[in-house]
Design goal:
Elements: E1 7-15, E2 18-26, E3 34-39, H1 52-63, E4 68-71, H2 87-103, E5 108-114, H3 116-127, E6 132-136, E7 155-160, H4 168-176, E8 183-187, H5 198-216
C-alpha cells in the first residue's frame, strides 16, 4: 500500500517585520493540538525553509503524525524585513508560534532547528514553553548560546563529527555544562549538511520524538 503524502498549505503570517512566508504540512490522521515549528539555517548563506535538513526535521515530525510548519525568516523568499542577527528572527518564530495557537488551536509546540535555526529554536523553546526541542548542528562557536535560557522540556542535540563549520567537541563541551543537560547524539562521518545521512537523521530524530510523544501531548 502506498503511503499517503502529507497535505501542503502555503500561508502568509503577519509578522513583526512584514509577512512571513510559511508552509504547513499535515500527515494523514494528524495529531490534534500539536505543531512542529522548524527553523532554517543562516539567511545570509543561502538558508531557506526549503533546506534539506529542515525538510528532514519536518518529515521526522510528520512520521509521528504531527503537522509541521516551516517558514522563511525575515528578508528570505516572500518574507518581509531584513536580517537581524537572530533577534528579529526569534521574533518571527514567536509570531509563527502565536499564529499556530490562535488559528490552528495548536497549544503544544515542538521547536526544531538546524544550524542558525538551532539558535532561534532554542530561544523559541524557552520563550514559548515548547514541549520538545531538537537542535541540529548548533553553531555554538558563532552565537552566544551560553547566555540563552535553558528550556525545561526534553531536548535532543544532533551533531556530525565531520562538520567543518560546527566543531562537535565544542558542542559536547557546551552541552555538558547545561542544567538540565540535553541528550546529545553524535553521528560519525556526518558533515554540516548531512549529505548522504539525511535518512539516518530522519530516523534518529523521528524515534526520539516518538519516544516523547505521549508526554508531550
Amino acid at each position: 500500500m502506498t503511503k499517503q503524502a502529507p497535505t501542503l498549505q502555503k500561508i502568509s503570517i503577519v509578522g513583526p517585520a512584514g509577512p512571513i512566508e510559511s508552509l504547513i504540512e499535515r500527515p494523514p490522521n494528524a495529531v490534534a493540538g500539536i505543531i512542529a515549528v522548524c527553523c532554517h539555517p543562516h539567511p545570509l548563506y543561502g538558508g531557506t525553509m526549503q533546506n534539506k535538513v529542515v525538510h528532514t526535521l519536518a518529515r521526522a515530525a510528520q512520521d509521528q503524525g504531527v503537522p509541521s510548519l516551516r517558514f522563511n525568516f525575515r528578508g528570505v523568499g516572500g518574507s518581509g524585513g531584513i536580517h537581524d542577527n537572530g533577534v528579529g528572527e526569534s521574533d518571527d518564530a514567536a509570531a509563527v508560534a502565536d499564529w499556530c495557537r490562535r488559528e490552528l488551536g495548536a497549544e503544544k509546540l515542538w521547536a526544531l532547528g538546524f544550524s542558525f535555526g538551532s539558535y532561534v529554536a532554542l530561544r523559541l523553546a524557552a520563550a514559548c514553553d515548547a514541549r520538545l526541542l531538537v537542535t541540529v548542528a548548533p553553531p555554538v562557536q558563532r552565537f552566544d548560546f551560553a547566555r540563552l535560557e535553558v528550556p525545561r522540556c526534553p531536548w535532543l542535540v544532533v551533531q556530525g563529527d565531520a562538520d567543518l563549520l560546527v566543531n562537535h567537541e565544542s558542542v559536547l563541551g557546551w552541552a555538558r555544562d547545561l542544567n538540565p543537560a540535553p541528550q546529545v547524539e553524535i553521528l560519525p562521518g556526518a558533515e554540516h549538511f548531512f549529505h548522504g545521512r539525511l535518512t539516518v537523521l530522519r530516523s534518529l530524530v523521528g524515534k526520539w520524538l516518538g519516544c516523547h510523544l505521549k508526554a508531550a501531548r
